[in-house]
Amino acid sequence: MPEHSVSSGSDFTPWPAERAALYRELGYWQGQTFTDWLWERAQRYGASPALVTAERQWNYRDLWQQSGERAQQFTGLGLRPGDAAVLHLPNHPEFFFNFFGLLLAGVRPVLALPAHRHHEITAFVRQTEAQLYIGPDQPVGRELQAQLGNLPLPVRTLLQPLDLDRSAPHRSELQRTDLAAMPTWPGRQQDPDQPAFYQLSGGSTGTPKLIPRTHDDYLYSVRASAEICALSPQTVYLAALPLAHNFLLSSPGSLGTLHVGGQVVIAPQPDPGTCFGLMERYGINMVALVPALLLVWLEAAARRPVPASLAVVQVGGAPLAPEVAAQVPQQLGATLQQVFGMAEGLVNYTRLDGPLPLDTQGFAISPHDEILIVDDDDQPVPDGTPGHLLTRGPYTICGYFRADEHNSRAFTRDGFYRTGDLVTRLADGSLRVTGRSKDQINRGGEKIAAEEIEHALLGAPGVHNAALIGRPDPRLGERSLACIQSADPAAPPSPAELRRYLLDLGLATYKLPDQFEFLTLPRTAAGKVNKRALREHFHARPTQETHDSQDCPLPHAGPVARKPSPLAAASRAGRAAGP
Ligand code: OOB
């Protein structure tokens, strides 16, 4: 009998009993809920600063208090343990108050990215039957509120003010929590081996997939990451990219920092002007960047020295060119740590005490991360040979949320997750990412599932067929190119019309094709669109149409704030963004 089975319509595919027992025995899974974890932090680090912004600070006790207030609010709204709520907040302390507030109330947050718009948010609400949407009391959130209000869905909306004066620590009439006694939040009663929240998959399919992460598995990855990355109460971690992303949340991210009693400094934007200023002011010693953002920081650092406090720069989310990696120690005066991870689980780190990691993405967190590198027939390849990366382990999911058919393809019969990444195991045992087999575009760390955009384009007037491919880009790593076969070749739709069509569907703007080409799509012998031929054809050829509206990697700007980011402006002008 296969160890791994997927039942129809399952919300959550548990780890097989034997492996679960092993992970408990090894102390990886400690049977702690997020509620107990946060309570423990408040007890242990009470008056130490936990969250820091340019305007204000909150200590661990405040964090507990604020989260408790939100939990009361959610319970008062009628939310019950096990319900889902879409959390759609930008980099702001409210992200944490609401995230932990939901967890305390036993409600499962769906961690939407700030760049998501109504196409994505509606899909998350539908899939999880979410009872609540929490967004910013800003145009982005108001637009979502209106959109969700038009749908025949029982979802309520809650817009949180992000004005720091209005979210003062004592804004409610509630009593301050007595830290000597643990209040009985519903989140305490939850099973630690059940889902705590949902991460989002970068995906390669038409509908974005949801990733149920349990208290047990996620807290293990947080504790282990904090240890590997040598975090301590002296850690001052700058959260420059979106807080909801797995890299920023747990690798070791904000949760790793809070685990050990450090400080999380929240940057509202990732640009060097904002971030270097925060670094100077708060003595930041660690930051996580995607390669596209690192490039901008390196350029800015040539003109404005980076504060000496910066000790570790993590880079992950997309391939990092060795020649760029080589500049980090000199230009930023920091140790480079490469991070290769995925929201589904597995995270690899290069070691901080190792040689400068130019062309390796490091070692898996756990001795019990099982790594298989296989050929197209699932047969193991020798070390040094690229192959498909399959993995299973104590914090890698065994199935997506309600996606049985997809799960049967994304996981092997014995429970290995097919990552869609091509890797090589190097002589020292570390992994090098060499490519990708999944039909995805990695645009500056933001993942675009080709199929999702192709499906959307097929509905546009004048489009007969569409294929989305990635093209190499010196700044973003890749940009997207939509190859369109028009219904009437004599009168193809214009790129502006197609872009407007996608925008009106409510897709996140980073998913809009950067470029369009109109042609008859080549076919394989089996009659499918031949994407390999398209990639080869367009690889070296310059194309005309480029939209630069969202050059900021993992942008914070929401759908309505269409003002080009400072990074986009800098990239257009062909110079570095800087203060
Ligand atoms: C992180 O998570 P996701 O879920 O947004 O994307 C995962 C995918 C990987 O499967 C791989 O294709 C790519 O992003 N990726 C990298 C990489 N790190 C991620 N490709 C090349 N080099 C790297 N260093 O992106 C993520 C999650 C946790 C920590 C770090 C990144």
TrEMBL record:
It holds the Pfam family AMP-binding_C. Keywords: Ligase, Nucleotidyltransferase, Transferase. Residues 540-550 have a biased composition (Basic and acidic residues). Residues 452-528 form the AMP-binding enzyme C-terminal domain. The keyword Ion transport does not apply. Its EC number is 2.7.7.58. Coiled coil: none annotated. GO terms for molecular function: acid-thiol ligase activity; nucleotidyltransferase activity. Residues 568-579 have a biased composition (Low complexity). This is 2,3-dihydroxybenzoate-AMP ligase. It comes from the Bacteria. The gene is entE. Residues 540-579 are annotated as: Disordered. Residues 39-401 form the AMP-dependent synthetase/ligase domain. It is an enzyme of class 2 (transferase). SUPFAM superfamilies: Acetyl-CoA synthetase-like (SSF56801). InterPro entries: AMP-bd_C (IPR025110), AMP-bd_C_sf (IPR045851), AMP-binding_CS (IPR020845), AMP-dep_synth/lig_dom (IPR000873), ANL_N_sf (IPR042099), ATP-dep_AMP-bd_enzyme (IPR050237).
